[in-house]
């Protein structure tokens, strides 16, 4: 599966995509730590680093509960990934002088996720992000305090064979296209 | 300037940082296009690609207006970057069957920005993101329609000598630290 892109685009950026077939193997904790280290090196407003990642390894005490907070469709395939992660952001910049809303808490956490996805690929893993999440249930399962937002969930794992997927998903196991640059970037005022 | 990180973290992720000294040189349009192509290859919910980038090259017809939408402090140094960009997200998933709020419009746009920052570095440029923006003025300058959100601004350019900065900023021209992985990622339920 290949994607058409300028040869000048970083290979990890071009080659990252979101399969649904995972082989059930574990992600070693030391690899996971490198992935989160990469995430934490993203830029953030005032270097506040609003991202948090709550994870469960496949088969550990929390995995089933984490999985149950995905929509049923995503549970069917995410169960075979090595790790299931919820990306959470801190909605406030907190200090002794009071808490202020952080304009970019979601945005910055998305930047951290992008780093994580690229780093995972560099270590031989694939990722697949999901907003197909029961967000209320996720907050419950995570025992999330007020002032934090569940942004999305993602899995990390080794790619499996797509023959393991049901027909409908097997057909969707493809690298997706992107809008042309001319539709997302433009000189001067806004064009929608 | 160096940062302590695992040798397994991707070099572009480790080496990306946010200087304020830029040398005033232009960013060729073909390089800018590659940066936005990389941005557009980020993951997004349902592949909706909610990101938009409105930019001005230093010295073009829009640059001064774009610059005026930053807070005065950021104007003082951002004026020397080659390109000034506003990252905007589409708050809705729009279709013929109606528009639905997109849970991850900011988050996904943050992922695109992360790709852009890494790609820029790979091409020899530096970036610096800002939420020190007059968001109301930015929406005005961009002539932004309802339903789109200005997430942040960032500059792209070639690094300049920090001696060009005023004393106060020269001292801040350093690579920032990050929280340890143990503070941002944890197995199981949430810890703040």
Automatic annotation (TrEMBL), chains A, B:
SUPFAM superfamilies: FMN-dependent nitroreductase-like
GO MF terms held by the record: oxidoreductase activity
Gene3D superfamilies the UniProt entry points to: NADH Oxidase
Pfam families cross-referenced by the UniProt entry: Nitroreductase (PF00881)
Domain Nitroreductase: 13-61, 70-158
Tree of life domain: Bacteria
Swiss-Prot/TrEMBL keywords: Oxidoreductase
Family named by the database record: Belongs to the nitroreductase family.
Name this polypeptide is given: Nitroreductase
Organism listed in the record: Novosphingobium aromaticivorans (strain ATCC 700278 / DSM 12444 / CCUG 56034 / CIP 105152 / NBRC 16084 / F199)
